[in-house]
Structure formats: structure tokens, C-alpha cells
Amino acid sequence: MCGICGVIHFDGAPVTRQLLTAMNERLTHRGPDGDGYLSDGAVGLAMRRLKIIDIAGSDQPLYNEDGSVALVFNGEIYNYHALRQGLEQRGHRFKTDGDGETIVHLYEEYGSGAVEHLRGMFALALWDSRRGRLLLARDRFGQKPLYFYQDRRLFAFASEIKALLAHPDVPVVSRFAADDGRALEEYLSFGYVPAPFTAFRGIWMLEPALLKQVDVSADEGEPHFWDAYYYWDLPRLAAPDPAAKAETYIGELREQLAEAVKLRLVSDVPLGAFLSGGLDSSLIAALMRQHSNAAVKTFSIGFEGDDSFDETPYAEQVARHLGTEHTAFRVKADALELLPELVWHHDQPFADSSAIPTYLVSKLTRQQVTVALTGDGGDELFAGYERFYAAELMRRLGFVPAPLLRGAAGLLRLLPEGTGYYDPVKRARRFAQAASQPLEAAYFDLVRVFDAELLARISPGAATHRTSIDSYLSADQPHAIAGLVEANMRSYLPDDLLSKADRCSMQASLEARAPFLDHQLAEFAATIPFNLKLKGSRTKHILKEAARGLLPDEIIERKKHGFGVPLGAWLRRDIAPVRDILLSRRARERGLLQMSVVERLISEHETGRRDHSRQLWALLTLEEWHRQFVDG
């Protein structure tokens, strides 16, 4: 696991070691075990390394036999043993025992098609000095990040935006001020800045499964950016089949899951697993226990403030059942104290408060292991989120007049909202409000941070745009809810869930591996009829059946519980710092928000009338980002 960065100066100016070091040092947390550099005139590459496989070797950059191809990459290639065997049979000679060197030899065989052979998580930069060509690529789901900046004089890339900003010619310009409301509207709706955009004007994120080539040997001194192309796409989900039976698929599903886990157990450093007590992480831990020759270490975290968010008793139950060496952390966290650190490592405003537990459990886990397996991706592959069932229920309730549903939502707004995870008033109000709209808009209303009405009040300029999930929907999905599942995989999964997992784990110098996001497993899961995933009100039906015998039934049948913190209770108990930050002179002078509405959000949350913790956290990270990256 590493952090990578690099520069091309199209005007021929040499890329100095001093410049590369300045960029690379911003990535030290991603790779505290060493660094590496390549300077080739106007082209330079650099990396930081976290040693996982082939600890004594595999220092980057990695080269082919004659040194004409150089690679820096971040991630793990899980099928490298099989790839290496085939390459050696073709005459390639290896200098290391690690996974990365397979990529340069694959490039010699297949050119840019090399990435199609990789099974893993990665962001890579490959320099072909003979052709004067730089190749960039990300893994299929976007588990590892890669950002870039380009103009006529300069191309720069890095694992994190902060490394790009270390280049003196990369400008710091906020999109929230420059884009006339669209960027702000997207952020306040999604809770993140959707790729390929970032919070910085001119800085872009390379999208998942995307390959980009930059030709440095362009005619007439002009750089040539090859058209980027996707080398893989999400598989089309199978249509519902009323005659389908789970038993038909369970055997192969178990085999595919087991293989995905076994591939991710390869490590030369201590390895463990996050264990929340939910189905996904518990199933991964069970398969680790089944296929590991060593004791399995598992880790969970709980927080003081609201027991409805504490899953540690369930995690401990699973650990006892499996016989793992379990560590349960219970901490008293200060969300506002962590805010600057979280924003610094995300590089952008990020409204998902589950970054708090993800970072803390990563930091504590790193004290014992260097690699941790996670359950990320299970909800995406098997329709596990409650919002998918809620959308299906809305579809069935289409006969109920919209004015009646809006009236119900209005009445529910009169009732006080608690901050508990399953607060019934809050859940009922959001459902009624969403159900009064067409299905796609209803689903977006369930997931968005600021709904359309509140957005129009807090930022009238932003509300002139119409953000939706329409651009993520595929016209050829066989079922309306299946289309929403795909939209979730194209948006929330890479831009929120995987971004959070990467930043929070690498912030602690911990490698997180997600077996559910094995692309071969995902391709098989797509062939399972959709009604075996969402069966009536039962989410993840087939995955639950596949877990029989591996986990206790009460864990398999547990009600869905997301990974979160009692943020609402924390902010309600100590609202003064929130008010000081959001209503400060600096915040007012930005001119982005209607301060009277911000004041109302704070007041309603403090008095218990409404739970505005999601909205307040979104505004807090937005203000903190401006202070660190724009003001500073």
C-alpha cells in the first residue's frame, strides 16, 4: 500500500527532486516505511511505501528488464502469483517477489490492456520512456484514489489532492465560489463532491475503471491527452425470476466468497478484520477463520452517548462464536476535536460522519495489525440498504395521492425528533416526504443531506440547479429498484463509502481490503435474479441464506444497522462550538449560505424539535475545509 505522485512539465523544465519530495512528503501517512523517486528530465515520479508483501524487496519505482518502463502504484494485486507464472513462461525475468512488478511485464505484453488482467485494488502510474507516454489507471470499483491537474504547461497526479497543491503551479481555487452554485448544490445534496469533479477548480478525480494516457512526445510542443476510456463496467443485474430458488446459487456464491477472502489473506505483516456484528463483516470474519492457518484478530468500536449506535455486543457475540482474538474499543469521542484532522485527510468537504468511527477504529486497529479486511460492498452487491426496500414500498404505494403523503409529512414535522438511530418520527417523516415524489426523486430524497426545500432556503443560488441521480441510472436495468442499486454503486459506493474507507484507514497507515469488491465475485452476483436479493421486505436474502451454518441465526437476521456515531446527541449536548464556527464572521463573509437558516438549524437541533446533525456536520466540514485549504 502506498501513496504516489508525479509531474510532467510540457515546456521541458526539469522535474527536480526538491519538487517531488515536497509533493511526496504530503503522502507520508500512506507509506511511512520508505520512499522512491524517478527523475527523467521533464518527467518525475515519486511514492511512499507501506510494506505489506515482499518487505525486503519491491521498492518502487519498479522496472521492466531494460528499465524503459517504470511503475509507481498504490494497492494490491491479488492474482499476482498466477500472472507471474504466465509471464515467466513467456520469458519475462523478475527481480522481486512482490505483486507490483507483474504490472510492468503485463504492460510489455498487452500495452494499456494490461489493467484488464489485474484482480485487485489499485491506482497506478506507468511511465514508458521509449514512447514518451504516461499511463494512469484506477481499479474497477475505485477503492484506491487518483487525482490530476492539467494545463498546457503541466500535468500532475497524486493519490491525494494535498500532494498536488504542493506543486507551486497548481492553483488553489474553490469551485464553490467559481461555479455559481452548482458545486455547492451538489455537495449539500450528496454530502460529497461527485467525481470526476473535486472541490478545487481544475483538479479532477480519475474515475473508477478509467484509464488515461498522456503523450509527452506531442507534435509542435503541444501535450496530447489521449481520450480516457473505461476498461470495465458494472455488470447488468439479472431480472427478477419468480421461479428462481436460492439453493441454485448458494454453492457457487460460497465458493466465490471464499476465494475472494483467501486471495486477500496474502500478507507478510499482521492481518485482522473489522467486525461490527452485522452480516457482512461477520461473514468475512467467519471465512477468514475458516481459511486462515493463524489466529484471526477482530476489532470493533463503540461510543458513549447513545446506546442505539453501539454494536459492540453483537460483535463480541460473533467473536465468541468464531473463536477470534477480539478487541472491542469503547471511546468517548469529541467530533469537533476530530473535525480538522478528518477534513485535512479528506482534502474536501465530506459530510458522512461515519468517517469518525472509521478513522478511530482504524487508528486503534493499527496498534496490532497492518492489514484489516472489511465488509464494504456487501450491501451494494446484494441490495442490503433499507432504502432499497423503502423505494420498493413506495413503488407499491404509487396509488396513494401525493398531496396526502405531503400532508402526512407536514404533520410529522410538528413532532419533536430524537437523535436515536431508529427514531420513528424522523424515519416516518422522511419516508412520507419522499413517497410523494416519482421513484427516482423519492430515492434521492432518502439519501440526500439537504432536501430540495431546505436547500432552496439555505442557498437560493445553489437551488437554481437540479441535482439528481438521473445521470447514474441505466436505461437497461431490468427492474426499477435494480436501477437504483446500480446508481448507488456508481455514486455513493466510490465517492462516499470507498473514499471514506481509504482516507480513514490510510490516515492511520492501515491497509483495508474489501473481499466483496472482488470484480469476479461482483460479476457472479449480478447473475443472481434480483428477487433473490431483495425478497419482499427482506434485504440480502441470498447472502443471509449463504451464511447459514457459518454464523448464528440471530446475527444473520439482525435488523440492518449502519456504522455510525451518536452525532446528534453529541451536538445537542454541546452546541456552543457549532454555533461559534458556523455563525462566525469568516463564515458570514463567504456569502455562501443564508445565515438566518443556519441559525434556525442550530436552534431546532438544540431544542430537540428536529435532528439536524447530518446537515450541521455537512456545514461544519464545509467551513473547516475553507479555513484549511482556501483561507490558509
What is the CATH level 1 assignment of the domain at 2-230? Alpha Beta
**Assigned CATH architecture of the domain at 2-230:** 4-Layer Sandwich
Helix content: 40-55%
Poorly predicted segments: none
Characterise this structure:
There is one protein chain. A hairpin with an 8-residue loop joins β11 (210-215) and β12 (224-225). Strands 4, 5, 6, 7, 11, 12 and 13 form a seven-stranded antiparallel sheet that branches. The chain starts with a strand and ends with a helix. α10 crosses α27 (613-631) and α15 packs antiparallel against α16. It is globular. Among the domains are: 2-230, Glutamine Phosphoribosylpyrophosphate, subunit 1, domain 1; 247-383 and 485-556, HUPs (Rossmann fold, 3-Layer(aba) Sandwich). The chain is of the alpha+beta class. The longest helix has 19 residues, at 613-631. The protein is built from 27 helices and 18 strands. 41% of the residues lie in helices and 15% in strands.
List key phrases describing it.
632 residues; alpha+beta; Glutamine Phosphoribosylpyrophosphate, subunit 1, domain 1; Rossmann fold; seven-stranded antiparallel β-sheet; six-stranded antiparallel β-sheet; 15% strand; globular
Summarize the model shown.
The chain is of the alpha+beta class.
What layout of secondary structure does this protein have?
Elements: E1 2-9, H1 17-25, E2 34-40, E3 43-49, E4 62-63, E5 69-77, H2 80-89, H3 101-110, E6 120-128, E7 133-138, E8 147-150, E9 154-158, H4 161-164, H5 175-178, H6 182-190, E10 203-205, E11 210-215, E12 224-225, E13 229-230, H7 247-263, E14 271-274, H8 279-291, E15 297-303, H9 312-322, E16 325-331, H10 335-346, H11 355-365, E17 371-373, H12 378-381, H13 386-396, H14 402-412, H15 424-435, H16 439-447, H17 452-458, H18 480-490, H19 492-507, E18 511-513, H20 519-526, H21 541-546, H22 553-556, H23 567-573, H24 576-582, H25 585-590, H26 595-607, H27 613-631
Helix pairs in contact: 7-8, 7-20, 8-9, 10-27, 11-19, 13-16, 13-18, 14-15, 15-16, 18-19
